[in-house]
Amino acid sequence: MNDSLNQIKQQISELRSLLEDYNYQYYVMDNPSVPDAEYDRVMRELISLEKAHPEFQSPDSPSQKVGGEALSVFEQVEHRVPMLSLDNVFSDDELKAFEQRIFDRLKNNQAIEFSCEPKLDGLAISILYREGKLVQAATRGDGRIGENVTDNIKTIRAIPLKLRGDYPAELEVRGEVFMPKTGFEKLNEQQKEKGNKVFANPRNAAAGSLRQLDSKITAARPLAFYAYSMGYFEPESDIANSHFERMMQLKNWGLPVCPVIKKVTGSQALAEYYDWIGEQRNSLSYEIDGVVYKVDSIELQQNLGFVARAPRWATAHKFPAQEEITQLLDVEFQVGRTGAITPVARLQPVSVGGVTVSNATLHNADEIARLQIKIGDTVIIRRAGDVIPQVVSVVEEKRTEAANLREIEFPTECPVCGSQVERIEDEAITRCSGGLICGAQLKESIKHFASRKALDVDGLGNKIVEALVDLELIKNPADLFSLTVEQITTMDRMGDKSALNLVNALDKAKQTTLAKFLYALGIREVGEATANNLALHFKSLDAVKNANYDQLIEVSDIGKIVAEHIVSFFAEEHNQTVIQALLDAGISWPQIETLSVDEQPLKDQIYVLTGTLTTMGRNDAKAHLQNLGAKVTGSVSAKTHYLVAGESAGSKLTKAQDLGVEVLTEDDLTQLLQTYGAI
Ligand SMILES: NC(=O)c1ccc[n+]([C@@H]2O[C@H](COP(=O)([O-])OP(=O)(O)OC[C@H]3O[C@@H](n4cnc5c(N)ncnc54)[C@H](O)[C@@H]3O)[C@@H](O)[C@H]2O)c1
Ligand SMILES: [Zn+2]
Predict the structure, then answer these.
(1) Global ipTM
(2) What are the pLDDT digits (tens) for 46-89?
């Protein structure tokens, strides 16, 4: 063998052993050491080398194998029908190529029917029912031999212990055990509190929870299940010859099947399904990492057959990665509106699902301690939806001498104003004690005060607020209203005209509503909706100010913590002074009419709001309706009197129409509210 071939052989063997390590951590320990994107890259590299050099192909290669070996602490189960993996496509071109390969193999270009399903991010399970009774359940393992987890599976409420209807005498149900998002977050909170290891993602949490020797532990974990295929079944039984119809059969026998599966024709429709599911991804209650397309006809599936580790008749279309690997270059500390000091990771920029990420939040001191992270570490970061990117974990394998690691030191003084920082016991957050003498807090609270949902001061952007504070022209929100044109023009790039506009905008902003004013004050955890509720409940600023804890928790949506924040906000002398100064500056709002219960014109009427209300927003609409005595509920039923449908109203509108519930447009609502003098 010549040198360069030797080199390739060496390279292949290194990639294989790297993937074996990754597989071990992922499948056996349920604790991945690198993000999937990194794993997939290495796998693709190996596959392309093996393709170019078939002489080095080996059935032992990770590219030919499914999953990881079954743990020997579990009894082993041999699957009667192997449990395979899935091939992946990552783009529309690869998707077309998948369809083309099927055409080529079938020697037929006729459009093909596919069943489309979300790719649930959990672990595969095979459940055996005999005479309708659950008798055995096993993990996938290496595809041929899995682990017996029957007792654990029986603790999952979504999985029936007995089938109903006309089921086959013997049936292997295949599906995914997964952990819904809220359950996953709760579990990780609990794990953190107990000082236990937190799970990297819902997939690992599901696998770790199911592969327990003590089924009591599994029983306490929030696991769910969707069936997605059949393995072995009694040959005589009456089983459909379409995958989709088989799913409906499973459903009839009492097994949960994912409600968003669809049958479509042709690869164009597949791409549409992918987009459709992608749009819903964040609002689904469980994590998915792509969609799966399966040739629907079982006969065609059989014609197409399998390769070593995956069927030819199915593929996973994966979403862009949400996790990537990069380096922590430094940590900076930012001070927020309430003085909370947040450590921000400065990262070696890295593209995550097409967006370059160079900062991520590290949350607080506890999180830094938990991650045991140091500057210079190689880290896994996650960017999901609109959420701020986060540091998920440290890749310990990459901690080398050369990394030159440095401890992260939490500041003892505020990086902006130099005040002492304090950390209240039982609270994870470290705060600057400087209050409004802290420039950072002042800037953030004024930005909030002027923001659209608060006093909505036109033209008072973030840059201007920062300059006003830096030049010490304002020391609290009330100072805004005594700014003069001369003062404003001392700022860079502020001519007479813009300065005058700003003064006028401030003047205009003085006419507001009580709810907006309360929101603008920036009381901790008092968002727009809470401010609305406070205003409607108490009707006047004095009443809110004088309300005690017991009166506050009477208000809808106000809990213990928020009530305490409100009480302590108004108890603070400094805040009293600023509020008085704001009132003296001329801020005012229309009196909220107090209607006695008998006077409420919409008493006992039930409303549902849906779609986007462009002129007032749903929170305001809700508050107005409630003030007139209406009940505003979340879902349409036969009891609903009116559905207010804004722009792009969806399923609620259809349901209301089906039930014959009267539908109001946004204009109708405005008219109604005007009639009763609510707006
Ligand atoms: N980060 C790591 O170190 C590491 C290590 C190993 C594997 N991985 C990841 O796992 C992938 C390979 O794992 P795999 O072999 O389990 O394959 P896979 O997860 O890509 O696809 C097969 C699995 O998808 C699941 N699935 C979900 N919904 C399904 C549906 N509707 N129909 C059919 N199956 C459905 C099943 O559990 C099935 O076994 C890699 O591409 C990589 O992303 C990562
Ligand atoms: Zn400070």
Answers:
(1) 0.97
(2) 999 999 999 999 999 999 999 888 888 999 999 999 999 999 99
> What would the 3-class secondary structure string for 33-58 be?
CCCHHHHHHHHHHHHHHHHHCHHHCC
Q: Per the annotation, where are the binding residues for Zn(2+)?
A: 414, 417, 438
From residue 291, give the alpha-carbon distance in Å to each of 137, 320, 361, 578: 25, 12, 30, 55
Mean pLDDT for 488-506 is: 93
Answer for the pair 262, 116: CB distance below 8 angstroms, yes or no: yes
Ligand closest in space to the Cα of 247: 1
CATH code given to domain 514-584 = 1.10.150.20
The neighbouring-strand residues paired with 356 are 351
Tell me the CATH architecture of domain 324-403: Beta Barrel (2.40)
CA of 335 to the centre of ligand 2 (A): 7
Q: Show Cβ contacts of residue 176 under 8 Å, excluding neighbours closer than 6 positions.
A: 120, 122, 123, 124, 125, 225, 226, 228
Given the DSSP bridges, would you call strands 113-120 and 288-295 parallel, antiparallel or unpaired? antiparallel
Catalytic-role residue among 65, 119, 374, 443:
119
**Ligand 2 center from residue 421 Cα (angstroms):** 8
Ligand 2 center to 341 CA (angstroms): 9
Fold entry, domain 3-64 = Helix Hairpins (1.10.287)
CA neighbor of 112 nearest in space, from 239, 316, 263: 263
Check if 324-403 and 514-584 are the same fold: no
Three-state SS at 457: coil
Nearest ligand 1 atom, CA 294? 32
Distance (angstroms) between ligand 1 centre and the Cα of 124 equals 9
**65 is known as an active-site residue:** no
Whose tokens are 């792509």? That residue is 290
547-577 pLDDT per residue, tens: 999 999 988 778 999 999 999 899 988 889 9
Query: Where are the domains positioned within the chain?
Result: 3-64, 76-318, 324-403, 435-509, 514-584, 597-675
Q: How many CB atoms lie within 10 A of CB 589?
A: 17
85 lines ligand 1 (CB under 6 A): yes
Asked whether 632 and 608 are in contact (CB, 8 A), the reply is yes
pLDDT at 517: 97
For atom 36 of ligand 1, which residue has the closest CA?
Answer: 124
Q: Which residues contact 321 (CB under 8 A, 6 or more apart)?
A: 35, 36, 37, 40, 352, 353
Tell me which of 81, 121, 139, 176 to substitute to probe ligand 1's pocket, judged by most ligand atoms within 8 Å of the beta carbon. Answer: 176
Under a CB-based contact definition with an 8 Å cutoff, are residues 292 and 85 in contact? no
> pLDDT for 7-29, tens place per residue?
999 999 999 999 999 999 999 88
